[in-house]
Design brief:
Elements: H1 2-16, H2 24-28, E1 36-48, E2 51-55, E3 61-65, E4 74-84, E5 90-102, E6 108-109, E7 120-123, E8 128-130, E9 145-154, E10 157-159, E11 164-168, E12 181-193, E13 196-202, E14 209-211, E15 225-228, E16 231-235, E17 252-256, E18 259-262, H3 268-276, H4 288-296, H5 328-338, H6 345-353, E19 354-355, E20 360-361, E21 411-417, E22 445-448, E23 461-462, E24 465-466, E25 477-479, E26 488-490
Parallel strand pairs: 3-5, 6-9, 11-13, 21-26
Antiparallel strand pairs: 1-2, 1-4, 2-3, 4-5, 7-8, 9-10, 9-12, 10-11, 12-13, 12-14, 15-18, 16-17, 19-20, 21-22, 22-25, 23-24
Helix pairs in contact: 4-5
Amino acid sequence: MPRIIVFIAIPLMLISRYALGAGQIAQVKLLADLQPAALTGVVVTLAFPGYFYVQDSNNVGLRIASAQSVTAGARCNITGTMDTTADEERCVSASSIVVTGSGQPRKVEMTCRNLGGRDYAYNQGEGTGQMGLSDGRGPNNIGAYVRVCGKIVRGGVINDGSADVRLLLPTGAASPAKGSVVSIDGISILWSVGGSPCRALNVADAGSVRTHKAPDSVTPYAGEMIYIPPGYFQMGATIYTYDPTPSEWPQHYVHLDGYWIGKYEVTRGQYRKFIAAGGYNNPAYWSADGWYYRNLYNTNQPAWWDESWLWDKSQFQTDNHPVVGVSWYEAEAYCNWAGLRLPTEAEWEKAAHWNPSRNCATVYPWGDDWDTSKCNWWLDSLYPNNYTAPVGSYPAGASYYGCLDMAGNVWEWVNDWMGPAYYREFPSGGWVNPTGPPSNPMKTKVLKGGSWWQDCPGTYRCGGARSSTRNESFARWNEFPNQWGGRQGFRVAR
């Protein structure tokens, strides 16, 4: 029962995270310099020499200047005067700090682009409000306790594909090596560079920096993979969202551990290596059922493998197009050969449409509004009608985490069996790293993401049945694992 209570509370916590219009720290940030300030029941997040940060129940953060020693998790009442640092960060110079108990500091998963956020009622002349970044996304989060994940692009700078963030590391701590994929906990601050504020993350100790080992670069796959950090996300649809099927709702919170997923769909060139390595002739890569069907059909390559097959004669599949015509068994065998695996449906969906800075799932990878220019579908202007597009052809359609072609191009096999009522079967331990039902009466596997073939948004009711014409990230299609088609492919995970 206690675990269930936690899962019920999570949505309420996420809803309130950035309600900056309310909460005592947001109100204190509006005071002019030298005005008296009082904070009650705030929790210490991180401490630095000569100052520390606190957050209130809305996860709004603020810097406190004080020589008094405090520890993370202390719940305090603070009085003092309002001030502004040289980098335009609001700060309370404390005259009294009374520890009243303990609390649990909460980190917010944040994109590099969102660090800083917009100005919050900032008035430079009067010294009120909190300066943000003019191109910052979302509400002001200066002083917030956050976690970012990305790649070290140069010494002391992290980038997750959206923006550079300067790292203010503890004295004596070395920056992770260039190219390292890391997740870092710290405080979102502004840092002055050449007189202009830039995004920065203030890190209290070396233990707040974690390096995530990338999938082996010598794997036969050799494609780029993106790290998705651990945490909760919303899976599925609400009954009010684009006419979902019964299997696509209710929307529910799921917790996933960190994982890696392919930035792109597996291409013909990547799959060609599997064929050349004798993958179709080695039962070690195949499940027992897969090997049975491979021999039953005498399969030695995907269907529609010829460059021009199925497509307009003026259009050809290149090695940079996604592989199509693969059954679930063939996708599984490729993954086994490459030392990888198919993503679970939950992993695929989080990578496709979860936006942690907004604490919500978007309808499409890029947002909530259908945009014909951001994916390869039946009527887009770049590759319309009857054929796929080379992977990565629609960079504006990237998901929050930077994955591409997660709407349109090809339907993607995932690992899960289809469960028509699975979302309504709340697990006894909560939704933690779900892998789908153990099987299903229909013996079908899930596909996600829509394809190039007439997959129009929200229009797939046909005579009371449902067809596969959807591009919403929550949409589900299913097929028998031994079936293949010209619009079915996959991406890898680890």
